[in-house]
Structures are given as C-alpha cells and as structure tokens.
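stage 2 :: seqdesign
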C-alpha cells in the first residue's frame, strides 16, 4: 500500500538504498577495518597537534597488508574555496602514489577510509570519496572497498557501488581483467547494480522528447567529431519545454584546461537559460579512431555514462536531473542521476514530496 503512494523518484531512492544494503552484506566490517579507522584517527591527531593544519586524511591498505595515507591542509582548502567544483585531491593522490598504485598492478589498495575534520562538531567524521577519487580508484585500483557511513551505520562498499554503471557496461581493459579473480564478489556486485539500474529505468519510460535529445547528441558529435579533441557531445533540455542545447567536449591535452561535454552543457544552460534547471541530459561518444567524420548513419557513435566529476557537477547544478544511458544489452533507459552518484560528497537536497 505504501508503494502505491510513492512517486517514481522515491521508489528509485528506495531501490538504491536496498541495493547498497544488499551489496554491503558481501563485505562485513572486520577488526582490520576498525584498525584502519583507528590508524587514520591517531595519525591525524598526531599531525594536527604538531600544528600542521591538516583537514582530511585518507588511509588505504594494500594487498600486502601495508598501510599508506595522505592528507590535505587547510591552506589547500582555502585556496580552492573560490571554485565551487574544487576537489581536495591530495589525500587520495598521496595514498595512491605512496602505495605505488599510479598504474594497475597486483599490489593494489583494497580498503580505504577517508576522515574529515568537522569544525562544528570538533571531531573527525568518516566521509565518502570525492568524484575524482572515485574515478581514479576505479581506474587504478578497481575492486577497492570504501568504509563509509550509510543510514547512520558504518558499512563497507566497493568502488563499483559508489561509481556505478561504468565498467558495468563495457569490457574491462586487459590489465584489469587479469586482476579480476582477486576481486571478491565482483560478479554478484555487478549483478546487483545492473538489476538496480534496469529496475529504476522502468520507473522513467523514455518519451518522444528523449529520443529527440538522443538524435540531437548523435548528430552534434557526428558533425563536430575530431579524434582526440572532440569525441563527446551532450544534449540537454531544461524544465521549460522547447529549451534544449548541446555541449561538445574539448580536449586540450593539458589536464584541467579540458572541458567535458557535460561541463560545456552546464555553461550553455547558465548562459542561454538562466534560472532554469536542466531536466534531462544524454551523452554520445564517437569511438572511431579515424581523423575524418563518419559517413555511416550512426558510425561508431554510442551513448555513454558521464564521468564521476560530471555527475557531481550536474547534480550540483540540477539535483533532480535525469540521465539517458545505455542499459548493457537491454536497450536505452532513463534514470535519476542521483542513482549513479550514491552517497555524494556534498550536500544533495532531499527529494521533495512532489518529486
């Protein structure tokens, strides 16, 4: 009876929570996990007492049992405050580099916990990884488990649950496939995530307007494609009917100067439709390695999911945005982007009763 009065949004949130709890059952907390938290707390306390002004610490344990950690300082945080999308990355970068995990290899990090000082409560709080950390860990240390707070309890969740529908929908690179046997319960986790995404997509059926957005994104990247520079196009519509635009990725080969298609879409939304929220977005990728445009109807163009940083940026701009995505052999679907960025590392507004 309760389900009958829930909106599709609340049903989707319920499915997400049930899925995360189901996945967490595969990874019960151990004494080693608790010792990892304690190590982070004691190390942070020691360094803070020395007046180093540390704000956050990330601790990771590798396959060989060794523990590595990294921190970032208050000065780094102050410097980044002018940028609302700033990422405090030194913690996890240090942890990865100290462990030698800047490339895929067997001695990868397997368990991670990040603790952050909260001035209002004057204590260390366990927090989820930021968007760049999620993307880097799934690339360099897939199968890593994060100790996080979920519904008031400490749980352990694999990176695939915190950054879902990435490697779920495409083959793993050979270097990662070789490590697959070392990831406990990976197939079960992937099955849970796939079931969740398909179940949620059934709550948000595609419309004729959605198909127009898909066609718009594919047409844009077909026209603008240049290998290595313009390979992604995102099409979006706002909450005002008829207001839609596209954004195209621009790869400058210089790191932070790059612009993803979704970031370009946000800038266009702010410029052309100020005060409106993005309602739906879809991203198309041209995967051909030719330097010429494809003359085929769709060529090597396919729909893809957004990277972790773009998911975060989109949610900060439009918390209730819907994302059209491929369903791993099940066609195309539409889901709330919230589902693809669980346990956000920022304050995401609660769903309204009318959502």
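stage 2 :: out
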């Amino acid at each position: 009876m309760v389900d009958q009065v829930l909106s599709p949004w609340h049903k989707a949130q319920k499915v997400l929570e049930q899925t995360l709890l189901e996945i967490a059952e595969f990874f019960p907390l151990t004494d080693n996990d608790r010792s990892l938290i304690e190590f982070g707390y004691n190390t942070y306390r020691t360094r803070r007492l020395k007046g180093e002004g540390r704000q956050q610490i990330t601790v990771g344990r590798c396959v060989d049992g060794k523990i590595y950690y990294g921190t970032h300082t208050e000065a780094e945080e102050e410097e980044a405050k002018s940028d609302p999308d700033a990422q405090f990355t030194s913690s996890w970068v240090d942890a990865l580099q100290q462990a030698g995990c800047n490339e895929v290899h067997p001695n990868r990090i397997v368990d991670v916990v990040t603790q952050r000082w909260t001035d209002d409560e004057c204590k260390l709080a366990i927090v989820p990884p930021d968007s760049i950390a999620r993307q880097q860990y799934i690339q360099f240390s897939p199968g890593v488990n994060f100790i996080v707070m979920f519904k008031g309890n400490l749980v352990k969740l694999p990176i695939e649950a915190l950054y879902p529908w990435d490697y779920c929908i495409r083959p793993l690179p050979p270097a990662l496939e070789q490590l697959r046997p070392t990831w406990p319960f990976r197939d079960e986790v992937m099955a849970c995530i796939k079931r969740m995404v398909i179940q949620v997509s059934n709550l948000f059926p595609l419309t004729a307007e959605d198909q127009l957005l898909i066609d718009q994104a594919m047409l844009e990247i077909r026209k603008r494609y240049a290998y290595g520079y313009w390979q992604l196009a995102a099409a979006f519509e706002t909450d005002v009917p008829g207001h839609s635009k596209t954004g195209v990725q621009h790869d400058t080969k210089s790191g932070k100067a790059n612009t993803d298609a979704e970031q370009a879409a946000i800038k266009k939304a702010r410029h052309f439709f100020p005060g409106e929220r993005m309602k739906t977005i879809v991203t198309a990728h041209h995967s051909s390695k030719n330097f010429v445009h494809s003359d085929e109807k769709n060529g090597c163009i396919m729909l893809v999911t957004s990277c972790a940083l773009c998911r975060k940026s989109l949610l900060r701009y439009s918390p209730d945005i819907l994302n059209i995505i491929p369903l791993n052999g099940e066609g195309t679907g539409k889901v709330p982007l919230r589902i693809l960025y669980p346990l956000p590392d920022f304050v995401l507004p609660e769903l309204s009763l009318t959502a």
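stage 3 :: structure notes
- The longest strand covers residues 109-118.
- The chain has twelve helices and twelve strands.
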